[in-house]
Design goal:
The chain is built from twelve helices and twelve strands. It has helices at about 5-25, 35-60, 65, 70-100, 115-135, 135-140, 145-170, 175-205, 320-330, 355-360, 390-395, 410-420, and strands spanning about 210-215, 220-225, 240-245, 255-260, 270-275, 290-300, 310-315, 340-345, 365-370, 380-385, 405, 430-435. The strands form two sheets. Strands 4-3-6-1-2-5 form a six-stranded antiparallel sheet. Helix 2 runs antiparallel to helix 4 and helix 5 (about 115-135) packs antiparallel against helix 7. The chain is elongated, with a radius of gyration of 25 Å.
């Protein structure tokens, strides 16, 4: 199926699953004599609940649903739609209190009925969930701790909110409506169980073993992983997987990393990881023979999804890893399309795969442009950052005759995307990969 049709299909499914529960509320008896604003506040409360429930499905890593967009887009949507859900959920009581000030007494959790206590508790937990996500680093929350708390808070918010709605009884007072919403809540939370329980069980049956830990430039390390008792996964160049080490697939120490090896080679795969945080700084301590687990592949960031006369790859720092996988794959295929790699690094010694990239030139129609923020004395190449002027000097005259793939730090990617559009490159030809999934 065409990826645009796929994308439209899954958007339709999302809208259907989000709106159908609201339409079902209108079937059967409804409470008489209530004002428009009261009804409106209840409607948006249920809408917020439906959106929050769908968050479990968005982050469940279903490959078919994420394939048209890429996992980074799914998580970006997850973050943005969370603000919509938060506004709807908070607007629900605010509107009621504004129209009926006497209802403010329900905020007294010591005297209010349980249905009100559940609503207050659910809202407080939702605010804590949002705060710990937005200010995780400022609060000093380690990634693994945050993931555990995030899952617990999410289940509490939806579970308590649904219990509040069922106990209040309006609109879902009939047994079949209550059963429907309880089943829907169980379905949403089941998506979380799928990721945290069922997928790890499957990963236990497809273990990997660390074959090598190879140091690279720029405080980076390449892990070579060999499958144990199975042929290994098949991936497209540019894709990534979640890697679990140390505690097995049921632990929370799993992180997304791109493959840096060729997709044409069966068996062993490689991931190149730069020391940027608590988990990545432990990679150099991994010993050959260590068991590892992979959940993947994911991502729409692949040249295999785009037919083009040639490709422009723009990388910054460790963002070179999906580009390396792409170049190695194309070399193994005997590809003869024109390829341009623009690679931004801090210094010449930070250039990951410096020799390996040069070794690929005889096998490909490849031009490499290094851009150094702090070049050595006498450096003849590009200096500073990748700007519109830098791109002008190296891009083909017909700029819309190529597909552009960008991966690197967020600031660099934002600047390059703006520069390309300023130079007249259509957004349809610009593809980015971001790994900020928190």
């Amino acid at each position: 199926m065409n990826r645009f049709i796929q994308g439209a299909f899954w958007i339709g499914v999302y809208l259907l699953l989000t709106l159908t529960p609201l339409f079902l509320l209108l079937i059967g008896p409804t409470p008489p004599g209530r004002s428009f604003w009261t009804e409106f506040s209840i409607a948006i409360g249920f809408a917020g609940m439906a959106i929050m429930g769908m968050q479990f499905l968005i982050t469940a890593r279903f490959r078919h649903t994420s394939a048209p967009y890429g996992m980074d887009i799914m998580y970006h949507f997850h973050r943005q739609i969370s603000w919509v859900a938060l506004v709807l959920v908070l607007a629900h009581p605010i509107i009621i209190f504004w129209e009926r000030p006497e209802m403010l007494r329900l905020l007294n959790v010591f005297e209010a009925p349980w249905r009100a206590r559940l609503a207050v508790t659910s809202t407080v937990v939702l605010l804590v969930l949002v705060a710990t996500s937005v200010w995780r680093k400022q609060l000093g929350l380690p990634y693994e701790v945050w993931r555990v708390l995030h899952g617990i808070f999410a289940v509490l918010v939806v579970g308590l909110g649904m219990a509040h709605a069922v106990m209040w009884g309006n609109y879902i007072g009939t047994p079949w409506k209550a059963a429907f919403w309880v089943a829907l809540t169980a379905f949403w939370i089941g998506a979380l169980a799928y990721v945290r329980l069922w997928k790890p069980v499957l990963m236990l049956r497809r273990q990997y073993r660390v074959a090598e830990v190879r140091p690279e430039r720029g405080r980076s390390w390449t892990l070579g992983l060999e499958p144990e008792g199975h042929p290994g996964l098949r991936f497209k160049p540019g894709q990534f997987a979640w890697l679990s080490l140390w505690n097995g697939p049921f632990g929370m120490r799993e992180h997304p990393f791109s493959f840096s090896s060729s997709a044409e080679r069966q068996g062993q795969v490689a991931m190149t990881i730069r020391e940027l945080g608590d988990f990545t700084s432990t990679i150099k301590a991994v010993q050959p023979g260590q068991r590892a687990y992979l959940d993947g592949p994911y991502s729409a960031f692949s040249v295999d999804r785009h037919r083009s006369p040639g490709y422009v790859l723009i990388a910054g720092g460790v963002g070179i890893t999906p580009m390396m996988s792409t170049l190695c794959t194309l070399a193994d295929r005997g590809n003869d399309q024109p390829l341009l790699l623009i690679y931004a690094s801090n210094t010449w010694e930070d250039v990951i795969f410096r020799e390996e990239l040069e070794a690929l030139k005889p096998r490909l129609d490849l031009t490499i442009v290094h851009v150094l923020a702090r070049p050595p004395e006498g450096w003849p190449g590009e200096r500073g950052f990748v700007t519109a002027e830098t791109l002008k000097r190296h891009l083909p005259a017909d700029r819309n005759s190529r597909d552009y793939f960008i991966c690197g730090p967020d600031g660099m990617m934002d600047a390059v995307e703006r520069a390309l559009t300023d130079l007249g490159v259509s957004l349809a030809y610009i593809h980015s990969e971001r790994y900020n999934f928190v």
